[in-house]
Predict the structure.
Amino acid sequence: MPELPEVETICRGLRQVLPGREIVTVEVLESRLRCRVPRDFARELEGRVFTDIRRRGKYLLISLAPDRVWIAHLGMSGKLIYVKTTYPRERHDHIIATLDNGHELRYHDPRRFGFSVVVREAQVDEVPQIRHLGPEPFDEEFHDRYLYDLASHSRRMIKDFITDQRILVGLGNIYANEALFHAGIRPTRRAWRVGRSGIKRIAEAIPRILQEAISWRGTSFSDYRDGEDRKGGFQEHLLVYGREGEECRVCSGRIKSVPIGNRSSFYCPSCQK
DNA sequence: CGGTGGACCTGCTGGC
DNA sequence: TGCCAGCAGGTCCACC
């Protein structure tokens, strides 16, 4: 489900309400979380106080004093919501942290692709999932030259390349397709054949499209909700993703779909070469 | 090493 | 109306 804009939206929302709150109790209602939630997960969190909520790629890093970080990835269908204790519980609410102010932080994930782990602050960068992540698209180290140096040595399809979280973090199926549309490049082009000007357009389109999606609080089709269980609005502004057979909003041609590695990619044959 | 294809899950939709 | 194949925002691993 969530790509960078959705995780960023959740992050900003939780940052408004969690710092200073104490976790009183934690219930882990689902034991089949693919061994990614340690048995002592609840005890690691109980009695601690939220300090800071930040994001690294598609991961939420939730700091708690003294000296713990709850690292959460929401997979395809995960939600992390802050609601009153009276807010109706649902099927697939797997982890419920009861706070000291009549609210709960609930981790909900029907498909259970997400994962959670609790580590010490100093260990965050050593966690394998975090250690191998590439630069943030909004950081200075991510620029067209960086992307070109890597792309010029890669024979992979460009869409596959830019969704590799080791190259850069944050892009998933929606925003990779959108960024390539904005750059005028077909998702099936081999990375090394995109060329310098094409890579430059991609490197510029990525942060732009992500920023725009953040301003709309992310994209919601069915599952995605922010930290207050509300939908995002960017689905109204998508130009190619999920629009197979519909009219291109730029040239009125028909949007096509092509599978890349078990996943649909969308593009406009006349706008993207 | 790189690239591919399947596995991991539940739920919803569309076609028959 | 009902059933079932196919597909969904992500990662990881085995295999060639």
